[in-house]
Specification:
DNA-(apurinic or apyrimidinic site) lyase, Helicase, Ruva Protein, domain 3, 26% helix, four-stranded antiparallel beta sheet, DNA repair, single chain, N-terminal domain of MutM-like DNA repair proteins, 331 residues, class I DNA-(apurinic or apyrimidinic site) endonuclease activity, 2 domains, five-stranded antiparallel beta sheet, Znf_DNA_glyclase/AP_lyase, alpha+beta
Length: 331
């Protein structure tokens, strides 16, 4: 499932390529035909990302809400204006000693330059998929509009750019009131909410809940944007047992998790990768950008030795989702 950094990056692509343009909307699959007819011919006026959900506004206060869920993705084609900076909503980008912006390109298994994620600033004729695993640009020929491939729930077409939505959990139109209610139901997002106010909201909810912290971090009404990868990594970085009831987690640890999420989310938006390891030398950083296996402390490392203590990483199910953790470091 796309986590918060991916959705913020997708929103930024919409801001550069779709907002301010008149859009032809259609539902090739047919499942969103009525909604597409409503926004067809309207101009996209703004886009917002909150946690794992994106909201695209059109003329006359019509909002399109999209939640990609487990399998959703956006495919962009045509003249794609790519943003190399992906600045955060509040103008601040998380600083880390392994940003590597002066290093040569590092290509992952999908052919993506991980240090800039989806390329340098340019108008590129091509195709890019944006989901949890963003793919690099590829030649799609000269046909315009591009052919419909597979089950496309919604196509948004400007004069130069096409955005195809596939497999979302939610794709619906909302009034401003409905959109505001949806956002209000979500927990704080570091790239949307004031960081200090978000910390207070997060800490207040966690400290009164008997629910295990490993479940609370995945609850989008508690905090927005955290999925399986960031949940496992945040808990390891805090050296916290995932089964600890929220109300039993010391206040300073709860606040530390929030501040760590602020930092990791900013890095994820900037690099396009869920980089959760610190203090890597340049060679190790390049490996981490090129391969997920070198990017995380515990995620996807079941049975492998903990990078800190050597204990085998445990894999278990928590609320039907995979949870990775070290039973020694996180006790």
């Amino acid at each position: 499932m796309p986590e918060g950094h991916s959705v913020h990056r997708i929103a930024r692509q919409f801001d550069r390529n779709v907002v301010g343009h008149r859009v032809a909307a259609s539902s090739p699959q047919g499942r969103f035909a009525e909604g597409a007819a409503v926004i067809d011919g309207r101009t996209a006026t703004q886009v917002r990302a909150v946690g794992k959900q994106m909201f695209l506004e059109f003329d006359d206060d019509i909002w399109l809400r999209v939640h990609l869920g487990m399998y959703g993705a956006w495919d962009f084609a045509g003249e794609i204006i790519v943003d190399p900076t992906i600045a955060s909503a509040n103008g601040r980008m998380g600083q880390t000693n392994q940003r590597g912006t002066d290093l040569p390109p590092v290509f992952d298994a999908a052919g993506e330059n991980s240090l800039t994620s989806i390329g340098a600033p340019r108008k590129a004729r091509g195709h890019v998929r944006m989901s949890e695993q963003t793919r690099g640009l590829a030649d799609d020929g000269e046909q315009w509009p591009p052919p419909i491939v597979g089950q496309v729930r919604l196509r948004l077409l400007t004069e130069a750019t096409s955005a195809d939505l596939r497999g979302p959990t939610a794709c619906q139109l909302q009034t401003p009131e409905e959109m505001a209610a949806t956002v209000a139901s979500l927990g704080p997002d570091p790239l949307v909410d004031d960081a200090a106010a978000g910390e207070e909201r997060f800490a207040a909810v966690v400290r009164r809940k008997p629910t295990p912290i490993g479940l609370l971090l995945m609850d989008q009404s508690v905090v927005s944007g955290i999925g399986n990868v960031y949940r496992a990594e945040l808990l390891f970085r805090a050296r916290l047992d995932p089964h600890t009831p929220g109300r039993d987690v010391p206040d300073e640890v709860v606040r530390g998790i929030w501040r760590d999420w602020v930092r990791l989310l900013a890095i994820g938006v900037e690099t396009g990768q869920m980089m959760t390891m610190d203090d890597l030398d340049p060679d190790a950083y390049r490996r981490a950008m090129a391969s997920r296996d070198d990017r995380h402390w515990v995620y996807h490392r079941a049975g492998l030795p903990c990078r800190v203590c050597g204990t085998a990483i445990v894999l278990e199910e928590m609320a039907a989702r995979k949870l990775y953790w070290c039973p020694n470091c996180q006790r």
